[in-house]
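Project outcomes to date are best conveyed with an example. Our students and postdoctoral researchers have been running inverse folding experiments weekly, and each run begins with a structure described purely in tokens. The record below, which covers 240 residues, was selected by the lab manager from last quarter's runs and is presented without edits.
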């Protein structure tokens, strides 16, 4: 029993180390891209780096983490060799992505005003239609992430049906769809104005949208391919 406990602790520490290493790489890339796009190539003054631009980096990093985390399982089913250590680190990686999402939501709430995000407001100070849809999608996303985090709770380890629901394909796809909803209505107008991209660099919301869309497609396409293959095999077998 003690040996098994030691192995479990060793695996948990190794998973935390792997997840932390990926997080460091992703956050470094996100922060560098945000600083390049908004400060060096864009008009945002450096005084806004600690909150406004840092929030952009946190948001991008969180979507990189979550899309990577949700893509591992379908990639493995497609035959891509994913190390077992990386598969075990999904829990820690997903928890870090959720924590980053919480930080992003908190900072956004603190700086969300007409002066900072004028495109989200009407002249009378109310939210535009698209801004309202985006905010609603973001709130639902945050709520689903909180519920998803319960699947790792030791207090619910005996609730197998509930845990299976939270880790099921439909729940994860719902979570990603609300992420896409939030990002699309928040930034699609800016995506279409390529000439207005700072330094020709695509908006962070667009990058996050593409990453999550690829993750969704990884969950959908392989299943369709396998279904078609199964139908062909069944047809061949019946014809013989």
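After processing, the design step wrote out the following sequence:
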């Amino acid at each position: 029993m003690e040996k098994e406990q030691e192995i479990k602790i060793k695996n948990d520490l190794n998973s935390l180390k792997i997840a932390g290493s990926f997080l460091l790489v992703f956050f470094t890339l996100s922060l560098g891209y945000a600083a390049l796009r908004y400060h060096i190539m864009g008009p945002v003054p450096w005084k806004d780096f600690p909150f406004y631009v840092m929030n952009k980096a946190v948001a991008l990093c969180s979507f990189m983490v979550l899309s990577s985390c949700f893509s591992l399982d379908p990639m493995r089913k497609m035959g891509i060799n994913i190390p077992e250590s990386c598969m075990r680190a999904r829990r820690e990686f997903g928890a870090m992505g959720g924590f980053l999402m919480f930080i992003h939501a908190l900072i956004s709430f603190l700086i969300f005003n007409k002066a900072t995000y004028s495109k989200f407001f009407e002249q009378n100070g109310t939210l535009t239609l698209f801004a309202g849809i985006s905010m609603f999608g973001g709130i639902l996303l945050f709520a689903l992430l909180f519920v998803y985090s319960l699947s790792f709770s030791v207090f619910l380890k005996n609730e197998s049906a509930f845990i299976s629901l939270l880790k099921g394909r439909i729940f994860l796809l719902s979570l990603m769809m609300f992420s896409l909803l939030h990002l699309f209505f928040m930034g699609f107008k800016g995506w279409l104005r390529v000439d207005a991209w700072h330094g020709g660099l695509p908006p962070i919301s667009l990058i996050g949208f593409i990453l999550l869309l690829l993750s969704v497609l990884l969950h959908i396409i392989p299943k369709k391919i396998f279904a078609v293959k199964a139908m062909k095999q069944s047809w061949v077998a019946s014809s013989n």
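The CA atoms of residues 165 and 171 lie 7 Å apart. The chain has a mean pLDDT of 82. The training component of this project remains on track.
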